Amino acid sequence: MTDDGTSTTATSTTTASVLAQALPYIQRFRNKVVVVKYGGNAMNPGGGAAQFAEDIVLMQSVGLKPVVVHGGGPQITEMMSRLGKKAEFRNGLRVTDAESLEITRMVLVGKVNRELVSDINRHGPLAVGVSGEDAGLITAVLHDPDLGFVGDVAHINPSLLLRLLEQDLIPVIATIGVDDTGQAYNINADTVAGAIAVALDAEKLVFLTDIEGLRRDVADPATLISHITATELQPLIEDGTVASGMIPKVEACLNAVGANVRSAHLIDGRVDHVLLLELFTDSGIGTMITGG
Fold first, then answer.
1. Helix, strand, coil percentages for the chain (3-state, nearest 5)
2. Which of 66, 159, 229, 248 is most deeply buried (CB count within 10 A of its CB)?
3. Exposed/middle/buried for 143, CB within 10 Å: 0-12, 13-18, 19+?
4. Between the CA of residue 161 and those of 109, 116, 128, 150, 208, what are the distances in Å?
5. Helix/strand/coil for 206
């Protein structure tokens, strides 16, 4: 009996049921790569990062091969403000002069990346922090001269990530790329996550953000879309249903499932253990996007 006099039988039964439900998914996804983009807006206070780390380690422990790609937009903006520099955005992209680029590298590589690696490694020596500058992982090209040092993905060289995965390690990737001259660029993390999923022939691409998924009516949570195909999704971009910060995520999903990634997912990173709910339960949570 529990302290309030209720039986633990119901709780135990529920736990056993969830574990049994997870088994076929664990078997199906064993040795499959799952790329998880952990957005800066999903890094909420109150234990969110610690639970995210637990989910990633559990995935790895049952045989999946997680790869973490992280953002850090709010953290970059906060640091810029502390240093007396105002953030400027155009069409959702951060204007990045030389000083802003150094701040971005400092926050993404030196702070956010290290904290995520530390959270994961509390459960064992598993995570390895990687920047897109390392071993030619992300080759970048200039996106728009008016935006400064903002880049697009020109090429992903997955060899470093493949070596880490072969050793049962978990890559945690900061999305700074370099061009052929060695110039660094800040690259949208959603775009990078999609490109890495394609390069690794991933089973799944998962975006953790601060909304529960795609809605047919942005203002109405009851219109959440649980499953949609790429063919059905494209008109929602064209008519403006998908807008603002969701656009790069959805475009990355479409590019991924249009290549070799089996499915892409948009889920709410503020929900406890949301990764496990999406991957290992029948009902799932959030929005799943598939090809066709």
1. 45, 25, 35
2. 66
3. buried
4. 17, 17, 10, 24, 21
5. strand
Please tell me the predicted confidence (pLDDT) of residue 239: 86
Q: How much is the average pLDDT of 210-225? A: 87
How many distinct helices (H) and strands (E) make up the chain? 10, 14
Q: How many CB atoms lie within 10 A of CB 61?
A: 12
Q: Please, which pLDDT band fits residue 6 given cuts at 50, 70 and 90?
A: low
Nearest CA to 268 out of 290, 284, 291, 251 is that of 284
Token pair recorded at residue 212: 């529960």
pLDDT tens, 233-288? 988 888 888 877 788 899 999 999 999 999 999 999 888 888 998 999 877 789 99
Please state the φ and ψ torsions of residue 130, each to the nearest 5 degrees. Answer: -135, 140
Amino acid present at 131: S
Domains (range + CATH), the chain: 21-290 (3.40.1160.10)
Residue 172, CA atoms < 13 Å, CB-side half-sphere: 26
pTM: 0.91
